[in-house]
Amino acid sequence: MTSPKQALAHPASSADAAPGTPPGAARDAHGRGTQPGADSWRSRLYRWDMKASPYAFVSPFFVLFGAFTLVPLLYTAWYSLHHVQLSALDDQTWAGLDNYRNLWSSEFFWNALENTFTIGVISTVPQLLAAIGLAHLLNYRLRGSTVWRVVMLTPYATSVAAATLVFTLLYSWDGGMVNWILHFLGVGPVNWRESDWGSQFAVSSIVIWRWTGYNALIYLAAMQAIPADLYESAAIDGASRWQQFRHVTIPQLRPTILFTVVVSTIGATQLFGEPLLFGGVSGSKGGSEHQYQTLGLYMYDQGWIIGNLGKASAIAWSMFLILLVIAAVNLLLTRRLRKSP
Amino acid sequence: MTTTEPTLPRKAGRRRVLGAGKQLHAGPVTYVVLTVFALVSLGPLVWTAIAASRTAGRLAQTPPPLWFGGNLFKNLQAAWDQAGLSTAMFNSVIVAGTITVSTVLFSTLAGFAFAKLRFRFSGLLLLLTIGTMMIPPQLAVVPLYLWMSDLGWSNQLQTVILPSLVTAFGTFFMRQYLVQALPTELIEAARVDGASSIRIVWHVVFPAARPAMAVLGLLTFVFAWNDFLWPIIALNQQNPTVQVALNSLGTGYVPDQAVIMAGALLGTLPLLIAFVLFGKQIVGGIMQGAIKG
């Protein structure tokens, strides 16, 4: 900050110079003739500093981000049009749309797309609903409110790998905690690894467990920003608590809900670690019948287990195109919602 | 509002007015429901510790153990050795530490420029930054893998570190914070005093940004420590991060479930400790990022 030393170093500069005036120029006006050469050098340096430093400050971000995210993005498109094998990385030949044709005629691609969609829906919808409810509770005046919030966020600190290993054991056929509890409730054991919906539910539950608290905090932040007089006038109009929640809280949360839907959708499209580890030894296949092979898993399987990096690139770009379509639909919906009263 | 509460007549209409928004006190039902949520949140973690203190044979039996056994230290030792966790922990600390320092530093610089400096294309560049937050990491892994192989960097830590040195989220987060937290007059005053931009960053921006830098650092560390997709492609079992080591432990052909649980516990422990120490800041950071984002 402005230390006394600095102020001493430029006694004339701060006195009557307008904010933003170069110190060199100010000195020119008052102390003309003392050191003209040094002053103009200083003012030139100052102007250069003003002009160049913003770019210097943003450039590390753009250089690193460009080099390791944007440029690879384009190269992935390039590789998706080539035959590239893991076993012969330098042997790249033009393939045209072969990889895409190959992909779209593969039943496993459509299976993975369907699984990604299903698991995405059954993990995102309950997660966000529970998060809104949880946020509503955390929004009350609570004893030890910070402790509650930290506890709800703890699963977020657990890695995909650790969480999935634990849930895999909880869901095991013999001696698994979940089936044992179900037995008490009078429900027969479920084969969480092999059955179609069972395994998809199991994978989704890991996602729900890890992210509900995180989303609840986002909703809580938005709830606390809602002006209290909105509730007061609603209450004066005779709205019950539930009606206040429905007609004040939810509409006010709409932008935040859309934000979390978009973020969760992106996350669901990329789902990878949970199904990989849930599958154990043959994880990249997504179960014996590919029951929970997601697009992310399919890409890893085709690229690094089977070794077809060209096809893996085509999968990556297909995922991106799907995301862009989802984003466009979201945008349209948002516009629609904003226009309607 | 709370001070007037006792004097108000207990009429239904009035009570609803008091029931408005955040002033409302939580009732017993709220605490019960929150406790259930808390048990669901913490239960699997506590049970991990229980399972890690048993034997594989006991874990295969019904009913599953609900209290601790005597095998904890034996299993921790086995997990540590089998998964090569000493190397993995060291690697994860290096990877997550470097990524955190770099992300916080460069995000603060770029965030400051976007928040307070005027330059051509700043609006466009900021829009680009926000837009790129949507790009999934899968889109970059094939070229990155090929380049790193060309450089002879397969299985080396810089392979994992380099692509994560900056994030669009971090830049945007710091920008949003500094727009409000850093008074423009302070920068102008420093300029009048003849301070160069670097001096201003060091003596004005960094002190003002410190709380947000701490939060971004914690969030980045959690993210980098837990990152899975790229490390698992880029690194092998000889030189793993903790997540890669846990993956190899979980996909072993002769799994000892108790040892796997001990590994999961060890891999999560550093972050759990961070949560106990800095949970409040992490919670605050997420809420702050949400409200302004």
Automatic annotation (TrEMBL), chain A:
One of its GO terms (cellular component) is plasma membrane. Residues 113-333 form the ABC transmembrane type-1 domain. It is found in: Cell membrane. It is a multi-pass membrane protein. Residues 1-39 are annotated as: Disordered. One of its GO terms (biological process) is transmembrane transport. Belongs to the binding-protein-dependent transport system permease family. This is ABC transporter permease. It comes from Streptomyces fodineus.
TrEMBL record, chain B:
GO terms for cellular component: plasma membrane. PROSITE patterns: ABC_TM1 (PS50928). It is a multi-pass membrane protein. Pfam families: BPD_transp_1. The chain crosses the membrane at residues 29-50, 89-112, 124-148, 160-179, 200-225, 258-278. Signal peptide: none annotated. It comes from the Bacteria. Keywords: Cell membrane, Membrane, Transmembrane, Transmembrane helix, Transport. Residues 89-278 form the ABC transmembrane type-1 domain. One of its GO terms (biological process) is transmembrane transport. It is found in: Cell membrane. Its main location: membrane. Belongs to the binding-protein-dependent transport system permease family. This is Sugar ABC transporter permease. The lineage of its organism: Bacteria, Bacillati, Actinomycetota, Actinomycetes, Kitasatosporales.
